[in-house]
Amino acid sequence: MPKIPPHPTLIGPTPVLGSERYHFQSLKVGGIFLVDVAMPTMPAPDGQKPGLLIVPDGNQCFSAAAGLARGMAMEPGGPPPLCVVGISYEVSGRGEKAEYHKIRHRDLTPCGDEAYEAMMRAAPPPLKWDDSIKTGGAVEFRQFIRDELLPWLAESFDVNAQDRTIAGISLGGLFVLDTLLQEPDLFERYIAISPSVWWADKYVLKQVEKANWSQQPKSLHLSVGSGEEAQDPNAKMVSNATAFAETLNQQKPERLDVGLDIVEGETHMSIFSPGFSRGLRHHFARP
Questions:
Q1: For 233-254, what is each residue's pLDDT tens digit?
Q2: Which residues form the signal peptide (predicted)?
Q3: What is the pTM of this model?
């Protein structure tokens, strides 16, 4: 009778190969973040140091962003090697209490949204919010990135901390757009994937005419899945992303480059990887 091998033993979550995780206490936000850092596997050309790619929503996006950035750096004419930094939240167990989903609303939104907050306080567990969940903390989250995270990265890793890109999806994409309008010199390149332009009655769209434009060249790439409009007619993801790009093109300075891709066949749940890769190609196109 053949021997039956012992039952496999669970070790824990799978880490991204070659990355390091840090607990980061933020005085600006008043909380603890998990910061994941994946240095590139390819050397930067001509002895240059790799630039930084900051990824909010690291709980769901860091592993995909790190893998794509590393793989695409190996393509002929692909983007240069980048240090990918994910910002995420500690969760209990396997995240069954949805802490990540709740807390991200604190950091990634530029203002409150009373209608949305009321909906979430009436939602079933584990998504139901209690009164401790607040929205509209994007200013403090940017302060954390600018005054705490970026100086630490510059001091702790062999990177070019002045060469900075940010990529976010959904509420993370909203934060990307809000940062471009409010503090454009924080990054050189902006990747907004399926951004939640609908938040607070299209607050971010109304801010375009009040934007604090940079004197330096900047680049924004927006992407959205073609299937998102039908997926959630109320959010109008395709219409809103298109309206934001059109409004921006009407009012932006010439030194701001704007690209928009409506990716055929993709939905809100599948757009991150194609949107991210197209964003990198838009920003780092090389012959």
A1: 999 999 999 999 999 999 988 8
A2: none
A3: 0.95
CATH of 19-283, one of 1.20.120.140, 3.40.50.1820, 3.20.20.120, 3.40.50.300: 3.40.50.1820
HEC profile of the chain: CCCCCCCCCCCCCCCCCCEEEEEEEECCCCEEEEEEEECCCCCCHHHCCCEEEEECCHHHHHHHHHHHHHHHCCCCCCCCCEEEEEEECCCCCCCCCCHHHHHHHHHHCCCCCHHHHHHHHCCCCCCCCCCCCCCCCHHHHHHHHHHHHHHHHHHHCCCEEEEEEEEEECHHHHHHHHHHHHCHHHCCEEEEECCCCCHHHHHHHHCHHHCCCCCCCEEEEEEEECCHHHHCCCCCHHHHHHHHHHHHHHHCCCCEEEEEEEECCCCCCCCHHHHHHHHHHHHCCCC
